[in-house]
Amino acid sequence: MNVKKAMIFAAGMGTRFKPWTDTHPKALALVNGKSLLQRNIEYLQHYDIHEVVVNVHHFADQIKAAVHENNGWGSKVHISDETAEVLETGGGLMKAAPLLLGNEPFITLNADFLTNLDLHALQRFHAWEQAFISFGVTSRNSTRNFLFDDNNRLCGWRNDSTGEERISLPQPHLKKLAYSCVAIFEPGIFSKIKFTGKFSLVDVYLSLAATHPIFGFEHTGDKLIDVGKPESVAIAEALFK
After folding, report:
1. The domain spanning residue 34 has which CATH number?
2. pTM value?
């Protein structure tokens, strides 16, 4: 298996990243002189993925201009325009379906996450498990976690701060791992999603977990940073030169 297409979610409002996001999209925030978007496009290039869909909403024209002015940083970049309404990750994926359709799996990333997760290893894991969806997870402090059985098959989700729990596959023992926002999907995903409008990929995962093999690829120890707040930039700059 050799993934050739990916989608980067870059449409969010970035409310935690103010004041930058009062006048810019978070995807164009700089880490050591390179935007988060550029870094993720170059990350994909390292794994021979040169065709990328980027969804846009907040200051969409700035992202479009940056992609145009930099010739996609060497990749073929398609824009999925959500200017009318931001659709979250699940809705954004569905809107971008015409740009991702094909016979091969594809990968999705969040623009504001940086990691050195080995995408070739993720693809091998996905093929070995004969998974429908596989996504990166690590053991780290997080209030929101996915829940897995001993074979790392997805069984549910829990928000420790609110106590909310959603179980798709009841098991006597569940382990919690935090989402890395890097996922690989089989191309049949679009016909299986029954939600419409604005919804999260979390809803997609949990709605399909009981009937489709969805697995967590644990990569604890890799570099990983959610550049969600301005103070995260200094940490990201120490990790990613």
Report:
1. 3.90.550.10
2. 0.97
